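pls ignore typos typing on phone
pyridoxal-5'-phosphate + seq
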Amino acid sequence: MIPLIALQEDTPDWQKQLARAITDPNELFAHLRLDPNAWPETLAAGHSFKLKVTHSYLHRIEPGNPKDPLLLQVLPQGAELAPQPPEYDTDPVGDIDAMPHPGIVHKYRGRILLIATGSCAIHCRYCFRRHFPYASAHPARHHWQTTIDYLQAHPDIDEVILSGGDPLVLSDAKLGELIARLQSLPQLRRLRLHSRLPIVLPDRITPQLLALLSQTRLRCILVVHCNHANEIDDAVREALLRLHAAGVLLLNQSVLLKHINDQVDSLAALSLKLFDAQVQPYYLHLLDRVSGAAHFAVSPDRARTLQTALSGRLPGYLLPRFVYEVAGGTAKTPL
Ligand SMILES: *Cc1c(COP(=O)(O)O)cnc(C)c1O
Ligand code: SF4
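k done
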């Protein structure tokens, strides 16, 4: 969350755009020339996890199209309020049990994931952390000291993953401070960021950020989150190319989502468009069973069919790994 007080004249443009993100469904409907009466449950569905979308992303949604694959990712719908199957709950992947300290998720060998912030530039309706207790799980509140202590007590960890929320919502000053502290630990070799900002707010990729990522001694990996080829417009592609030119390895993770990208044509187009922007497909996640998102689920059988069809269409290096997450597992599980 960007405090209003930060919005002075020298506030970076991306922070102003973030502060102007749309949170009022009626504003969204007006921009897209959609009839609000067609979605009577949007207000109620957005009550606990509200609508949020940047203008940049909004511009890539086709006006007047209620089935637009980008719109469906951000618009709160009545289906979120419907009774959920019993296996859907508020912490589907067991993150809370895997936190030795608030905000530090240590599930897999050699790497930890930090909840660097609870804030995002966009609210994806299927988000597996949509019920996450961010207010109490936030390592930054202790100036990262708990994280540094934890790393020093676990010298086998050589990679830190900044996640959230979205770590690129943090200012360059805050990120710089964190990176400086991390790179002072000789055990660390790699810094990974899991961020949707290059996709939903490409102006976030500022020269200052590029300098931070290219000047650290840590090898930087940025895993973006893009689900559909329409999410990549010229501004996004240029932002990704700048990151690539700065020496950042770019990977993508997607979520397989019903009526959004559950067709082989759609998945193939996404891989090809990512590759044009120097991004390699990494993971295609089956939906985590988070309560409120059951209507996005694609069955494992359908996912296997898509996997086979996609491998018949694309070179191997453009195939994402189809995976799902099992609470308590030692890695993502291949389909
Ligand atoms: C997914 C995940 C990772 C990263 O897994 P990779 O297979 O290395 O990409 C790390 N930690 C946690 C807690 C995760 O959920
Ligand atoms: S950007 Fe990521 S963390 Fe934020 S709402 Fe979307 S899926 Fe969830």
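The pocket of pyridoxal-5'-phosphate (ligand 1) is lined by residues 105, 107-108, 111, 113, 161, 331-332 (CB under 6 Å). The CA atoms of residues 198 and 257 lie 20 Å apart. more later
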